[in-house]
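Q: Structure for this?
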Amino acid sequence: MADKKSIAMNMTRYITETVSDSEFITYVTEKILYNGQSDYQQIQVFETKAFGRILMLDQAVQFTDVDEFIYHEMLTHMPMLVHPKPERILIVGGGDGGAAREALRHPEVKNLELCEIDEKVCEISRKYFPQIATSFDDPRFKLNIGDGIARLKGLREGAVDVIIIDGTDPTPMAIGLYSADFYRTIHRALGENGVFGTLAGSPYFHPEWTKLVYRELSKIFPKVAMYTATVPTYPGFLWAFCVASKGQDPRGLDRSKRLASMEDDLKYLNCGLFNAVFALPSFIRRMIEED
Amino acid sequence: MADKKSIAMNMTRYITETVSDSEFITYVTEKILYNGQSDYQQIQVFETKAFGRILMLDQAVQFTDVDEFIYHEMLTHMPMLVHPKPERILIVGGGDGGAAREALRHPEVKNLELCEIDEKVCEISRKYFPQIATSFDDPRFKLNIGDGIARLKGLREGAVDVIIIDGTDPTPMAIGLYSADFYRTIHRALGENGVFGTLAGSPYFHPEWTKLVYRELSKIFPKVAMYTATVPTYPGFLWAFCVASKGQDPRGLDRSKRLASMEDDLKYLNCGLFNAVFALPSFIRRMIEED
């Protein structure tokens, strides 16, 4: 999850991620567990003392053992909870299985399709992050290896209740996932009260990305709400997410009953936080409102 | 603001802060503006592209131009707003003037004393961070160079309305600022409805510190509330703060009127956030409640 201006990698001890032209973060590795190239990207898994195992794609940290729960919970449960009855779920990307693990905690789910372009990510996650890739054998779970945009275009109107994009940065390769055109395809695939959830970048390091997602979604969906969560091992640390709804306003909903049934299994989200995270720091509010 | 296990410093181009034994953050410097030793600590000021100027004390980043507002606003305004009428203010530490700048935005303030042990920090801040050290000539402002603990012990009972500690990490030198004994001294110095505000570490990197502050304060004050804010250039990123009150519970107060008068000048805090930040992620809530 970072600009990739330059990367230094020393297989024997250090792995460095470049955050901006002023800052880079170096991890002291205990062991390189995997380093390979799939058809789409470089995949690396390494072990650290403070963060446990870390997954890197194209030299950008995707998650670590110790804080993956924050990103996966906050990306997934917010759109799931905004929908009044999330039965049919589509996750685009997220081949590691973390978002699927969270979505399947909701007893309303009847089927969940994970559409991941890079099968190798699923393989590596099942091998090195078994506590994340818990859902691959769930009877409600279906893995679809292929292109997410094509899959969404091929869906019939109103086919799903919740769509979640668990993708990479808006690099030239992934920029198609951050456009009004794409959001129109998503809107069409969603049923009544349908809800869409996506990451919206770091307001510090990718303000243009944060603004873009909010602006383009607001053109297509009647209700769009931004919220934030802190992910210590993503450069930028305070990350923005958007939830876009065809029905209810995401803000001010009472989901205490649904949340109570799974709160013991969650490490980050709880009833109080579900509504509180929509309260944005002023500089972010001004940033997205200025357009 | 970091464990200091090892530090690499190359005066020509890179300055590195050690976060833990698994991670360090390197800043690419454009220019070293100051590098000296006071009677108490090493003080460094350097320029970066992405963060502007950065102040380091004993090789731990204290703040940067671009995000100092988050820490200073969240440390200061929360206790100030919890107090119903904050007229007499004492800040211990904070020689840079950032907390004083924020506190003096409150029209209720009649006098503010800044008790800083290291005069050199004030000097350096006035020279290199004039937008932070704005309050030194305010008629309500009084600078007291000396030891904060001694100053607090010397105060008569009930002498001040709000006390804010703007100190360094709980290193052996500063550990006295994080004990029940010290909090008892603070409680005594505070008047009716008195409020105390302090940083409580990073729940990721200093869980013991976070728990210690909450536990020790809860022994002394009837109402203690923890809240969080994300400071991108503090390792740990999500930081915990505590506000301890002799009177009103910090949670659920309506301070919209007082906040509205200064909201245009603030970059982080606003009415919605004032109450929302007390909603803690579950792992932090469990951490402080387990004792």
